Amino acid sequence: MPTAPSAQSPTAERVGGTPLLSGVTASDSTLRRFLHGLPGVDAVGLEARAASLGTRSIKTTAKAYAIDLAISMVDLTTLEGADTPGKVRALGAKAVHPDPTDRTTPATAAVCVYPDMVAAAKEAVAGSGVKVASVATAFPAGRAALDVKLADVREAIAAGADEIDMVIDRGAFLAGEYLKVHDEITAVKEACGTAARLKVIFETGELSTYDNIRRASWLGMLAGADFIKTSTGKVAVNATPANTLLMLEAVRDFRAQTGVQVGVKPAGGIRTTKDAIKFLVLVNETAGEDWLDNHWFRFGASSLLNDLLMQRQKLATGRYSGPDYVTVD
């Protein structure tokens, strides 16, 4: 897959500690010119490659490794209006010890909650190495003034969030107000400081086209995202192999041009071990082994973990566990 036109991005520089391609974000017009100068996406080719990679066969030993790797990459998530501190504490306990009967089971990467639940999550995972991620910036719609969004971020960080999952203003993006979206991401990144890594959610199901997903990916990375994330999980179309493949190509190409590595988080709709392994194959074959680590790749999920645990038990014992083997979150 070709990278961005080199004539428009000859060198990488750092402005305020944020990686930028030289001159690209100087104005609305230069940013628009760069984003619309990215190579167009061959939708048929993209979907065919994603489907082809999804047919790769994984043998028993490799499957056991892949299951443990996938468990370690889960951001165990609860983002419901009915969330309570008790529910979040239980989820945190599960993140630390996903299978209490087998302490060789790896912990998940993080627990992802609303800002007002961060303190409860932090208490539940204390001393474990499991991170606490908080959605912010008027999640999931992102319809709020910037000062409100920044207050949301600061509240989460003050409560102890290690990671912030922000949503972009899709209305501004679709209206072509790319610099506005860029500047909001930059402001959130500044609010995170060194306290929290920033995941930028595009809501790919609302961006309509693969070209828009590619543009959003580069826009997020130009603004300093530590991760780019597909979805909130709150719309009909969330993570798919094709849109994740496209984002993996973007982070690969961005690092090739700038030397800066950015993570990827598909979220929503990934429910089975088979699905998760398909995504790990996409990572390995597209971005490479450097991304096969939970510092650079995550699954935004809740039900996925239960299927991974049951498949892990099946490999260990040769039989499927009953429905009461795992907790219903």
Total beta strand runs:
10
- What is the topology, as strand order, of the major beta sheet? 9-8-7-6-5-4-3-10
Order of helices and strands: EEHHHEHEHEHEHHEHEHEHEH
Q: In whole angstroms, how far apart are the ends?
A: 40 Å
Strand proportion, as a percent range, falls in: 5-15%
Q: Give the mean pLDDT.
A: 91
Largest sheet: 8 strands, parallel
Output the structural class. alpha/beta
Q: What are the segments in which pLDDT stays under 50 over at least 5 consecutive residues?
A: 1-19
Q: Radius of gyration, rounded?
A: 19 Å
| Global geometry | globular
**Which percent bin holds the helix content?**
40-55%
Tally of DSSP helical segments: 12
Q: What would your notes on this structure say?
A:
The chain has 329 residues and is an alpha/beta fold. It is built from twelve helices and ten strands. An eight-stranded parallel sheet has the order 9-8-7-6-5-4-3-10. Helix 5 links the parallel strand 4 and strand 5 (131-136). Helix 6 runs parallel beside helix 8 (178-192). The protein is globular and about 60 Å long. It starts with 11 loop residues before the first strand and ends in a 12-residue tail after the last helix. The model is unreliable at 1-19 (pLDDT under 50).
Lay out the secondary structure:
Layout: E1 12-15, E2 18-21, H1 28-36, H2 43-53, H3 60-72, E3 74-77, H4 85-96, E4 110-113, H5 118-125, E5 131-136, H6 146-158, E6 163-167, H7 170-174, H8 178-192, E7 197-201, H9 210-222, E8 227-229, H10 241-258, E9 263-265, H11 273-286, E10 299-301, H12 303-317
Parallel strand pairs: 3-4, 3-10, 4-5, 5-6, 6-7, 7-8, 8-9
Antiparallel strand pairs: 1-2
Helix pairs in contact: 2-10, 3-11, 3-12, 4-5, 6-8, 9-10, 10-11
